[in-house]
Amino acid sequence: MKIYTKTGDKGETSLLGGTRVSKSHQKIEAYGTVDELNSALGVLRSSTDLDSDLLLEVQHVLFNIGSLLATEREVNFELPKLESTDVEKLENAIDLLNEDLPKLRNFILPGGSSAAAFAHMARTICRRAERRVVVLENIDVVVIHYLNRLSDYLFVLSRAILASEGKQEINWKK
Fold first, then answer.
1. 3-state class (DSSP) for residue 152
2. 71 falls in which pLDDT band (50, 70, 90)?
3. Residue 48: pLDDT over 90
4. How far apart (Å, rounded) are the C-alpha atoms in residues 82 and 143?
5. Which of 22, 34, 99, 117 has its CA 20 to 30 A from that of 28?
6. Domain presence at residue 154
7. Using a CB cutoff of 8 Å and minimum separation of 24, what contacts does 111-116 make?
């Protein structure tokens, strides 16, 4: 199978269902940003063992979200589902990580270690993905909830990474 099809050479691509759209279409921007987030999570997973299994699960969920975002109309196959339990998994992980962290008293600058910085980078990409998704029509609200909670999780994970490495958070100085 050839990886190149040349069907996108004129700046268009197909959504699931066959509809051709510009590569600058809002849906392409949305699922492209989710794809970018998934790549950033791959970098994060390769740099830390902390919550690696959950991060891998999140990557699978993000692929599912991408397929939902890439669909323009009815398709003749079943699409993956995103459930509120997926959001709850993130909330539970946040609560568990937070148990061992000091109370947050300052704004924190990204950094402190490579893995923590990667978590912050993924967090900001996640926020951008969320902004791209909220402008779309007919999007399951669970997708928005998931991305919102995922960015929170990545923030807490960055703090937990630093704590596990015995490194200090970098507080913002006014």
1. helix
2. confident
3. yes
4. 7
5. 117
6. yes
7. 111/170, 112/158, 112/162, 112/167, 112/168, 112/169, 112/170, 113/161, 113/162, 113/165, 113/167, 114/47, 115/44, 115/47, 115/48, 115/50, 115/161, 115/165, 116/158, 116/159, 116/161, 116/162, 116/165, 116/167
Structural domain for 158, as ranges:
25-66+108-169
CATH code where residue 53 lies: 1.20.1200.10
What are the two backbone dihedrals, phi and then psi, of residue 78, each rounded to the nearest 5 degrees?
A: -80, 130
> 118-144: string of b/e by CB count within 10 Å (b at 16+)?
bbbbbbebbbbbbebbeeeeebeebbe
Q: How many domains does the chain have?
A: 1
Residue 153 lies in a domain: yes
Mean pLDDT of 84-110: 96
**Distance (Å, whole) CA 17 – CA 22:** 15
